[in-house]
Amino acid sequence: MNIFSGLEEIVKTDYPLAKHTWYGLGGPADYFIRPKNTDQLKEVVKRCNENKLPVYVLGFGSNLLISDEGPRAAVIKLETDKFTKIEFNGEEITAWAGAELAKLVLTCVQEGLSGIEAITGIPGSIGGAVKMNAGGNFGDIGAVVESVTLMDSQGDIFEKSKPELMFDYRSTNIIAKFVLNARMQLSSADPEQIMRTVKEAWIYKKNNQPLNTKNSGCIFKNPRGVSAGALIDRAGLKGLQIGGAVVSEKHANFIIAQKGCKSSDVMRLIDAVRQRVKEKFDIELELEIEIWK
Ligand SMILES: Cc1cc2nc3c(=O)[nH]c(=O)nc-3n(C[C@H](O)[C@H](O)[C@H](O)COP(=O)(O)OP(=O)(O)OC[C@H]3O[C@@H](n4cnc5c(N)ncnc54)[C@H](O)[C@@H]3O)c2cc1C
Q: For residue 236, with 0-12 CB atoms within 10 Å meaning exposed, 13-18 middle and 19 or more buried, which class applies?
């Protein structure tokens, strides 16, 4: 029985996910689904529920490690026109989940809107960035998000606004399955000044992160008051290698996938790093990336 009958145009089966991740790693999903609009997304969610099929939401795969076997699930990606829009209304913008952060930053520079320079150089989507409150030394996206439109795992759509909507370090209190869009409050500023800040953030990233490699950004969250990268470095783990996975020499909180690397190599290296940091500093590192088994 085809559980997605009538939706064949947007559903692929046994679909390789590696090319949808920054690591370029990971096996096939049972179903890979690209709904064209919210009604279709609702229908997909309904069919998944009826068939007790787990659902995963994929952004740009820049904070993900997918197992070599791939997930026995429906992986849903919001990438059609409807889900990638960026709408401007004075100093307020509504960005849909599948829109690219880089495009959002550049469009805001052109429009003379300041507030999201902090997300410069983060290679994700709005949905992924909002879900984990992406950011860094220059601030995070949560600072400008006023409200989000969400869809829960029953297919119900609703809004959540500040102060009920909360952002914390690399986390939010969003528990609904899908972020559909985010409304942000920016402020007018001189485009040249905004561009200078964007360039500064970009240069900082280029100097501090191994950007031209296959990676997934920072692997671990910073424990309170300490940098995870500094702990890994002080444990002498830069350059540590398991299979094709290696701890970056440039930034110790990055694990690079070299040619021939498998997801299982990265997972084993993550475990090894965690264990060594625990032994040396008695600190448990918590994952920043998400692993789909
Ligand atoms: C080179 C490099 C540098 C990076 N630098 C930074 C940095 O400076 N700061 C930082 O915070 N991060 C950084 N990252 C990590 C990553 O880019 C961010 O976490 C980004 O926000 C993830 O977005 P994504 O669309 O790729 O999400 P994905 O990796 O596809 O997904 C991440 C999580 O978000 C969920 N998700 C995605 N879309 C939706 C949606 N529409 N609704 C609900 N849930 C959703 C997924 O289910 C998953 O749980 C970096 C990554 C790389 C590769």
A: exposed
- Centroid of chain to Cα 95: 15
- CB 102 less than 6 A from any atom of ligand 1: no
- Residue pair 104/86 in contact (Cβ under 8 Å)? The answer is yes
Contact 16, 28 (CB under 8 A): yes
What's the gap between Cα 20 and its chain centre? 12
> How far does CA 250 lie from the centroid of its chain?
22
Residues written for the chain:
293
Q: Any idea which residue has 């409150």 for tokens?
A: 133
The predicted-structure confidence for 5-26, as pLDDT tens digits, reads as follows 999 999 999 999 999 999 999 9
Compute the distance from residue 21 Cα to the ligand 1 centre, in Å: 10
Mind listing the pLDDT tens digit for each residue in 81-91? 999 999 999 99
> Encoding tokens for residue 147?
């409200």
- For ligand 1, whether the C-beta of 172 sits within 6 Å is no
